[in-house]
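Homework help thread (please don't just give me the answer)

Our assignment gives two proteins as sequence + structure token strings and asks us to describe the second one. The first is just a warm-up. Here they are:
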Amino acid sequence: MEERYVTISFEKAKEWYNSNNSSLKEIALQAFDKEELEQIDLKEVINLLLSYTEITNTQRTQLESLKNRKNISKTSAPKLLRILACYFNGEFWKKKEGEEGYFFYKKEGGFMNTYSPKVMDKYWCISSHTSVCYPTLVYFKREKDCKEAYNIMKSLDKLDALYTDF
């Protein structure tokens, strides 16, 4: 069989990688590393956050400062979720036991034992903890902020990148 080589742009490879077509995903992975394809453009996310109407002047100043840094470009999905939590919660808020904190998770058989989760879609839920505080979870102070972070991650097609197989 004769072999031919094809050149694809990073943007096209990323599109193929995020598609539901396993053949295209495989081709994209031959051209670029999985880590490269799963990275998120932070400037795009910052522009999205700057467009929110509820943004405070302090948040706007911090986001503009972050956006103008020369070394900011890409990040992973888990790191982006932590950045969104800092943005929505305020930089210094950390959930403590006895304080309510919201989080979203993928609902697969027995993945997370929570009380009364709010179903976001077929695979994802939002829930809260008050009496416990798990160090591996990213918590949000308010349910609406947790939903917004979920929507941002979903719009970037990065929800599944938050949970990888070990």
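The one we have to describe:
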Amino acid sequence: MNAAPHPGDPPPGSQSISASAERARAQLHEEIERVRVGVEEMLAEQRAPVDPQLRREIDDLREDTRLYVKKRLRKSEKRIERSLERVEDRTERLERRIDQVEAERAAAEWRIHSETERMLDGLLQEMRAIADLFSRRT
């Protein structure tokens, strides 16, 4: 069963493209962070005075990475919140539908019981009428 797309959802197929782009961005930032850490380790091993410009670049990279991670985390949290809201909405709809089906089932059982009782009452009256006919003949 295919679910209808929700308003505001990207068109089919674009999710895989945006997911690929997000993975590529994440890999790029991971590589930048790996290089930055490598440069810092190399400088620490040399125990030489660090060029101020290089230190600024490393600090800038660290800050860019921190901001990127913060942004990605916020974006992921929002995505999860939206997903949870959709799940909660669907759960509420399903609960309402279950309640409706349960009410319909109870009403159907009552109708079946009532109709069966009415039918049996009618059969009993016919049986009594037949029994009265037989008792008058004898």
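TA reply:
I won't write it for you, but here's a hint about the kind of observation we're looking for: The chain has one domain: 14-137.
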